[in-house]
Amino acid sequence: MTRILITGASGLLGINLAMEAMREHEVIGVDRGKLKSAPFQVLQADLLHMDTLDSVFDSARPDALINCAALANLEECEQHPERARILNAGMPGELADVCAQRNISFIHLSTDAVFDGTKVGAYTEEDQPNPQGVYSQSKLDGERAVRQANPQAIIARVNFFGWSLTNSRSLGEFFVNNLSAEKPVNGFTDVIFCPMLVNHTARLLLDMLEKKLGGLYHVVGAQPMSKYQFGLEVARKFGLNESLISPKSVEGSGLTAKRSHNLWLSIHKLSTDLGGEIPNFSTGLNEFYTQHQQGYPQKIRGYQQ
């Protein structure tokens, strides 16, 4: 059994990763106070205060660290660029350095948004990033800081959906919540991405850890689609009114942070090194729906109380 320390344990990936990992491993989450009754050990700490790092590591004594902590709201990053730089670049570099010194396996989560979206076809790990906003630039800076401090670390570029503590962190929740309330929404036809159920993301990260991989990987879904198509698929699976979703261009959305049009990432390297196929979108969507039917969203939201 591996002792896994998870930073950002109350986030969308953090909580679902912890739930997946605790089946076979000992999990210690780091949280700033949102988790009150989680079924795994939680250390309350603010990692922005770098002097707390040693005490967290001394207390947790992890074999591995998976860093899920980030400022992931694109609009908020544009408004608070210095906070984005600290959370998304400075802190990951510090964590990577401590893990290297203590011989602790390290996984850092990055984003598909490091690319400008102008390529025709899928981006590979060899393609050069070209960030288009504060969020994507800070995440790329985080990749570089991690790589410099800890060359053996895994850097995973991700894009996922699933159920969160707040019921408002993922695109899947956005469509389910609004369509269930019969509210009209927009779906971008000109933003292509590769969504993966967050639980599948978590399982793949644990597989990567077990196989002792290292370096940069694209850990996203196998099927590229527009965000409009994603919304339609969610609506159909949940039996909701898909006509409430209006096909729109992201260019007229009024969003402050620029969105890249094509974030289709190749998963060839990941599937090759793991020696198996990556879960397809329909499998993830089916599990997302089953979780909803079985009360999983309410279960994890209860960990805040």
Considering the chains and any ligands shown, give keywords for the structure:
305 residues; alpha/beta; Rossmann fold; seven-stranded parallel beta sheet; two-stranded parallel sheet; 13 strands; 17% strand
Q: Could you please describe the fold and organization of this structure?
A:
The structure is a single chain. The chain is of the alpha/beta class and 305 residues long. It has helices at residues 12-21, 53-60, 74-79, 81-102, 134-149, 171-180, 198-210, 227-238, 268-274, 281-293, 296-301, and strands at 3-7, 26-31, 41-44, 64-67, 105-111, 154-158, 160-161, 185-188, 192-193, 196-197, 215-219, 225-226, 245-248. Helix 4 packs parallel to helix 5 (134-149) and helix 6 crosses helix 8. The longest helix has 22 residues, at 81-102. The protein starts with a strand and ends with a helix. The relative contact order is 0.15. The model has no long low-confidence stretch (mean pLDDT 95).
Topology diagram in text:
Elements: E1 3-7, H1 12-21, E2 26-31, E3 41-44, H2 53-60, E4 64-67, H3 74-79, H4 81-102, E5 105-111, H5 134-149, E6 154-158, E7 160-161, H6 171-180, E8 185-188, E9 192-193, E10 196-197, H7 198-210, E11 215-219, E12 225-226, H8 227-238, E13 245-248, H9 268-274, H10 281-293, H11 296-301
Parallel strand pairs: 1-2, 1-4, 2-3, 4-5, 5-6, 6-11, 7-10, 8-13
Antiparallel strand pairs: 9-12
Helix pairs in contact: 1-7, 4-5, 6-8
